[in-house]
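Amino acid chain
________________
===
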Amino acid sequence: MLFRLLPIATSFFVALFVVETTCFVVTENNVAAKPTTDYFVREALFVHLGPAARILTEEFYSARTNFITFQIELLKTTLSLESTFPGNTGGAKSNTRLQQMFVACESNSGKVLGFAEVDARPLSGNSDDNGINRSYMYNLAVDKKWKRKGIATELIRACEGYVSDMHELCAENRLYLRVRSCNDAAISLYKSLGYDEVDPASISLTKEDINSNSLEEGELVLLAKDLPIDAECCVG
């Protein structure tokens, strides 16, 4: 039934199944990984996007979908990640350093356990107010079986390290994120890592801007953290 609804995606789902059931560790000289006892965090490879999309879909859509609609959202999320994968956007080379995806992988199998993105690219080819590129972290999610093991914290630190490293491309060395105002656990985590709530008006945004294009239900608030330029990068 699903393939009848999405006939053009049949071969894609077969490929997606292969990617998600074949987990392995990939190492490259130009991509460094941070090992821990049970997992490591690294820059994402294209092969990681299928498993990452499943984690994101389970995090944001599992409570609002049935079997068929879940598969549709999974497909949409995978295609979205693939279309915005660093180096796959057709943008200027100077913009490739303004965006990165990170994954947490199990140390033994290489299975993807978590995902996060950081992006400072200007929207529609234009920077926001006063020509400032601002870095935002989004799509942070961890496999439900691996929550409360420090993975989210390591992914956040990887994003922070990346922003600190490319600070010369932005007018401010600060990382922003959005979170539901009722998500006390997430807000507590972010605040423990040095994030504070920011008035959207201070960067020429409105509450409507902050809540636009959100996958989460409930009002969102804007948090930010100023990063030291000489902060130690957690990856690379």
